[in-house]
């Protein structure tokens, strides 16, 4: 890989990975979000109860694509840049656990500035039937101000910084252990890392989602804050409420991370070949 981790090809690789992963997994992400916000003390809702009508499963996709592509590009670029900087400036090997942890943390903090507005709008569009993307954006700006788009940023950091740390430590460690550079290796490593990180971060993600969605009506749940929401969930619905949407989150998260990381890694590995073919094509013309 080139020393310049922010060059055009690198951004092309990460953007392609983000675009394909989002289109494929968005319907399952919608189901996961709807499951997480259901408040019930009796029967646990089934996936089928929130999946219809099927035409609504792609609600929130435009804003998700608009922000998730640059967000994932920033995320992956920052991760690689941080590892490179730690190695060249501070002599910290790229293959150490500390390098993975610090790089994952930096990537999540930077990318969160784009991921949070996407999550706020996407979650509300997925759970509400009345607003278009533009109408919702205007409503948030008018009723909550600019801060409304970043509702849950710090909560998101509490969810996804540990998530990213666990993911990349597991992913990179498995890659080193398997010592192979094939798409099957990337798929397996990403799947194992994804399941592990999702299982750990799901309770906090459920709380974050409820808080972000509750901001739409400015109700009591929103005013109480995430800690009170967590306490009420456990008191009224039991601890199982904190894992609501876990299977849907795995069903969404695993394909998403597997597709994005595999495409990203394969494109990185094929850099010289692809750029060489492009150069030959233009030379012939």
Automatic annotation (TrEMBL):
Q: Does the keyword Cell membrane apply?
A: no
Q: Which residues form a coiled coil?
A: none
UniProt KW keywords? Membrane, Mitochondrion, Transmembrane, Transmembrane helix, Transport
Subcellular location, record wording:
Mitochondrion membrane
Of the GO CC terms on this record, one is: mitochondrial membrane
Transmembrane stretches in the record are 57-76, 97-115, 152-171
A single GO molecular function, which one? iron ion transmembrane transporter activity
Query: Is Transmembrane given among the entry's keywords?
Result: yes
Q: Which family does it belong to?
A: Belongs to the mitochondrial carrier (TC 2.A.29) family.
What name does this protein carry? Mitochondrial carrier
What species was this sequence derived from?
Rhizopus azygosporus (Rhizopus microsporus var. azygosporus)
Lineage, highest ranks first = Eukaryota, Fungi, Fungi incertae sedis, Mucoromycota, Mucoromycotina
């Amino acid at each position: 890989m080139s020393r310049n981790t922010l060059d055009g090809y690198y951004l092309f690789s990460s953007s392609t990975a983000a675009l394909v992963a989002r289109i494929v997994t968005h319907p399952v992400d919608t189901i996961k979000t709807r499951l997480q916000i259901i408040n019930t003390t009796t029967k646990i809702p089934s996936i089928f109860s929130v999946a219809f009508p099927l035409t609504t499963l792609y609600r929130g996709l435009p804003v998700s694509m608009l922000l998730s592509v640059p967000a994932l590009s920033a995320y992956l670029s920052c991760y690689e840049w941080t590892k490179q900087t730690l190695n060249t400036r501070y002599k910290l090997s790229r293959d150490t656990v500390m390098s993975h942890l610090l790089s994952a943390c930096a990537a999540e903090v930077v990318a969160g500035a784009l991921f949070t507005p996407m999550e706020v709008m996407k979650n509300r569009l997925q759970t509400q039937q009345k607003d278009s993307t533009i109408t919702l954006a205007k409503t948030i700006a008018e009723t909550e101000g600019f801060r409304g788009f970043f509702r849950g940023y710090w909560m998101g950091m509490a969810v996804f910084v540990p998530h990213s740390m666990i993911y990349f430590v597991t992913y990179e460690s498995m890659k080193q252990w398997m010592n192979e550079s094939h798409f099957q290796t990337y798929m397996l490593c990403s799947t194992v890392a994804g399941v592990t990180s999702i299982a750990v971060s799901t309770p906090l993600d459920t709380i974050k989602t409820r808080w972000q969605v509750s901001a739409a009506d400015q109700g009591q749940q929103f005013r109480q804050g995430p800690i009170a929401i967590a306490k009420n969930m456990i008191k009224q619905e039991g601890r199982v409420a904190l894992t609501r949407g876990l299977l849907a989150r795995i069903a969404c998260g695993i394909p998403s991370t597997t597709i994005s990381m595999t495409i990203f890694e394969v494109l990185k590995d094929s850099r010289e070949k692809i750029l060489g073919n492009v150069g030959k094509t233009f030379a012939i013309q």
